């Protein structure tokens, strides 16, 4: 399989940092979204908050990787031009 140039930009460290940050965002959002649920039962409210935090965390995951790809590529191009 042919490896595209942008696939070489992110290292395993960047991916691990993305996983850790995404997990922290998931925990934070599931805690912050609990008051905005429809249930009075705390267990159901936490489950609803966790299910709501999943797509928010996915958006953060994609945004982090897009940012890192652009940032690393920009740094690589600046070093090449110097």
Tally of helical runs: 2
Beta strand %: under 5%
Q: Sketch the major β-sheet.
A: none
Number of strands: 0
Give the H and E element order.
HH
Distance between the termini: 33 Å
Class per helix and strand makeup: mainly alpha
* Tally of separate domains: 1
Rg: 18 Å
Silhouette: elongated
Tell me about this structure.
The chain has helices spanning 12-32, 42-81. With 82 residues, the protein is mainly α. The chain is elongated. The model has no long low-confidence stretch (mean pLDDT 90).
The gist of it:
The chain contains two helices and no strands.
Descriptive labels:
82 residues, mainly alpha, elongated
Task: Draw up the topology in text.
Blueprint lengths: L11 H21 L9 H40 L1
